[in-house]
């Protein structure tokens, strides 16, 4: 709710038709970009936008941070915001940090209500592996694919599985030609945005095709026909059944659930658990760093949530699924608009990525990480395992094992054999004695 109020304040400032100066961060410095590039951003970069008008004499300085902008680029942007404020606005400007896909209304209107967000960007000052790209409008020799979500035109990988019945997609071919694919559930706003595509991309020809009426040439450009996100809720969206996202965390000392409005993929917190309600299906999303108590509480919350529903939903007619971060099914991703497969790569860390690469692990399609029913997942928390399995490192334990209380996952017989006493005797011991016994048997 705070975000909505903040945006309404910026909507009342003026009509966004004032003057703009835009800098792009590169190599610990900022560089003015030409007006012809205004409204075009790279997800791998950070930008500073100075806006002034008669109604905003002090000016507004936005610093826009792409999802794949590096730490040094973001820090450079923050540093230069203050310098620009002092040099051009005498320290009187309003400063606003803007995250990709979280742009306020005033910001969007500054660029004619359409933003183009491209993949890649200039190299980091620390020479990160991010690929530097040439000017977008010179890339006529390649096929590119864009997802139109609301008032944003975002470059995505050229793959048929990235299609989504709820949106519009544009495939740009060589020689300034392209296809605009209109999903059955695309909104009026998205259709209006799509009308601006020929001008933005300086197209000679643009063929509009409706979902389900694709010519063979279209699928050829995408590398073949594959399943993509579709279904009743995506093809015929209704305000009555809008998707809802809930953030679940015990970071405050007790389990707390809070609804997030106008959500995007960035709202999925790796340290916590999220609940996505799409009406026909309810997903429990497990962040890779969420703790076991949050997971247990979230599963219980979903069961109670459905039981209390007065719309007629219950466990029998509603699919209750659990998905893990980085293993989200297409049906889950479709409700977040633009989905970025690489958004969390930096959070995994170099060592973890190296390990996964060496094991040839496929983050997305590992069949062992398909969604499970909530009741199935609940059983994982009470499942018992041999002591040899429980002696593994924390990140190698079976799902559902409480790393701080591994002994709870031993059967009664295995527990007594390892500890030399029944569980009831162990539980009556003071904490320090329990720890001594766990160290002795290799479970601490």
Keywords:
Severin, HP domain-containing protein, disordered N terminus, globular, 18 strands, six-stranded mixed sheet, 28% helix, 4 domains, 16 helices, alpha/beta, 444 residues
What is the topological layout?
Layout: H1 2-11, E1 19-26, E2 29-32, E3 40-42, E4 46-53, E5 56-65, H2 71-89, E6 94-99, H3 105-110, E7 115-118, E8 144-149, E9 152-156, E10 168-173, E11 177-182, H4 188-194, H5 197-200, E12 205-210, H6 216-221, H7 232-235, E13 244-249, E14 256-260, E15 273-277, E16 281-286, H8 292-307, E17 319-324, H9 330-333, H10 345-348, H11 350-358, E18 372-373, H12 374-380, H13 387-390, H14 412-419, H15 423-427, H16 431-441
Parallel strand pairs: 3-7, 5-6, 7-9, 11-12, 16-17
Antiparallel strand pairs: 1-2, 1-4, 4-5, 8-9, 8-10, 10-11, 13-14, 13-15, 15-16, 17-18
Helix pairs in contact: 8-12
GO molecular function: actin filament binding; phosphatidylinositol-4,5-bisphosphate binding
Organism: Panagrolaimus davidi
Domain HP: 379-444
Describe the overall structure:
Pfam families: Gelsolin, VHP. It comes from Panagrolaimus davidi. One of its GO terms (molecular function) is actin filament binding. Belongs to the villin/gelsolin family. This is HP domain-containing protein. This protein is of the alpha/beta class and 444 residues long. The chain has 4 domains: 117 residues, Severin; 96 residues, Severin; 137 residues, Severin, CATH 3.40.20.10; 60 residues, Villin Headpiece Domain, Chain A, CATH 1.10.950.10. Helix content is 28%, strand content 23%. The chain has a 7-stranded mixed sheet with strand order 3-7-9-8-10-11-12. Strands 14-13-15-16-17-18 form a 6-stranded mixed sheet. The chain has a 5-stranded mixed sheet with strand order 2-1-4-5-6, with helices on one face. β15 and β16 form a beta hairpin. The N terminus is likely disordered.
């Amino acid at each position: 709710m705070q975000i909505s109020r903040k945006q309404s304040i910026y909507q009342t400032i003026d009509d966004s038709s004032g003057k703009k100066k835009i800098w792009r961060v590169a190599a610990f410095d900022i560089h003015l970009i030409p007006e012809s590039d205004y409204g075009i951003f790279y997800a791998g970069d950070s930008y500073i936008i100075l806006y002034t008008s008669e109604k905003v004499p002090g000016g507004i300085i936005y610093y826009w941070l792409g999802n794949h902008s590096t730490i040094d680029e973001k820090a450079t942007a923050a540093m230069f915001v203050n310098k620009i404020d002092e040099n051009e606005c005498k320290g009187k400007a309003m400063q606003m940090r803007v995250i990709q896909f979280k742009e306020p209304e005033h910001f969007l209107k500054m660029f004619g209500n359409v933003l183009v967000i491209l993949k890649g960007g200039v190299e980091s000052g620390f020479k990160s592996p991010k690929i530097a790209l040439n000017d977008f409008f010179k890339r006529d020799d390649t096929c590119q694919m864009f997802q139109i979500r609301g008032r944003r035109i975002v470059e995505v990988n050229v793959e048929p599985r990235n299609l989504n019945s709820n949106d519009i997609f544009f495939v740009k071919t060589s020689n300034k030609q392209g296809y605009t694919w209109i999903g059955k559930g695309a909104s009026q706003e998205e259709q209006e945005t799509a009308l601006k595509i020929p001008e933005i991309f300086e197209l000679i020809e643009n063929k509009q095709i409706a979902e389900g009426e694709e010519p063979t040439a279209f699928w050829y450009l995408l590398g073949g026909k594959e399943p993509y996100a579709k279904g009743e809720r995506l093809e015929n969206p209704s305000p009555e059944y809008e998707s809802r996202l809930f953030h679940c965390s015990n970071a405050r000392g007790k389990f707390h659930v809070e609804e997030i409005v106008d959500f995007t993929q960035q709202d999925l917190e790796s340290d916590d658990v999220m609940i996505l309600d799409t009406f026909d299906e309810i997903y429990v999303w497990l962040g890779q760093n969420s703790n076991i108590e949050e997971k247990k509480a979230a599963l219980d919350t979903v069961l109670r949530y459905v039981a209390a529903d007065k719309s007629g939903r219950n466990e029998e007619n509603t699919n209750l699924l659990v998905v893990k971060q980085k293993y989200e099914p297409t049906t889950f991703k479709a409700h977040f608009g633009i989905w970025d497969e690489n958004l969390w790569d930096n959070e995994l860390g170099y060592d973890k990525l190296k390990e996964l690469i060496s094991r040839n692990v496929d983050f997305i399609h590992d069949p062992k990480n398909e969604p499970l029913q909530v009741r199935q997942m609940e059983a994982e928390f009470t499942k018992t395992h041999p002591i040899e399995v429980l002696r593994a490192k924390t990140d190698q334990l079976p799902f559902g094992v409480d790393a701080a209380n591994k002994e709870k996952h031993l059967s009664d017989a295995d527990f007594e054999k390892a500890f030399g006493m029944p569980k009831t005797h162990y539980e009556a011991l003071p904490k320090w004695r329990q720890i001594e016994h766990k160290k002795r048997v290799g479970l601490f």
